[in-house]
Design brief:
By secondary structure, the chain is an alpha+beta fold. The protein has two domains: 1-67, 2,3-Dihydroxybiphenyl 1,2-Dioxygenase, domain 1 (Roll); 73-122, Roll (2,3-Dihydroxybiphenyl 1,2-Dioxygenase, domain 1), CATH 3.10.180.10. Helices cover 18% and strands 42% of the residues. Strands 2-3-4-1-5-8-7-6 form an eight-stranded mixed sheet. Strand 6 and strand 7 (101-107) form a beta hairpin.
């Protein structure tokens, strides 16, 4: 098993509803809208699991649509430091998005944006 597996993905769209409609028609996806986050969640398998699946949302800040892959990590702050040491760039430093969950967005050296996610104890 991978030490830091890919556990989540996001599609940032100019129109999330249109994107979801398209993906549902193509792939027969089961989608759940999370009113709190405003994200259309696409669970992996038959039900929601911790950090499994993905989500689609409408862009509010970014100008270009994007796809982000999330890697599950044990120590997000240490990984962010290592990313910088190896020539990467921290786009959004580690922060708590929900109680018990931290994320960090970063560019690898060629500029591709990726993300990390960590479950933290409260």
């Amino acid at each position: 098993m991978q030490k830091n597996p890919v556990v989540y993905w996001e599609i940032a769209s100019h129109d999330a509803e249109e994107t979801i409609d398209f993906l549902e028609k193509i792939f027969n996806l089961h989608v759940e809208f999370d009113k709190k986050s405003g994200i259309y969640e696409v669970p992996a398998g038959d039900s929601r699991k911790e950090f499994a699946g993905g989500g689609v949302f409408t862009l509010k800040k970014a100008k270009l649509p994007f796809l982000t892959v999330y890697f599950k990590v044990d120590d997000i702050d240490a990984k962010a430091k290592k990313i910088e040491e190896l020539g990467g760039f921290i786009v959004i430093p580690p922060f708590e998005i929900a109680r018990g969950t931290k994320i960090c967005l970063f560019n690898e050296p060629s500029g591709v944006t990726l993300a990390m996610i960590q479950r933290i104890s409260s």
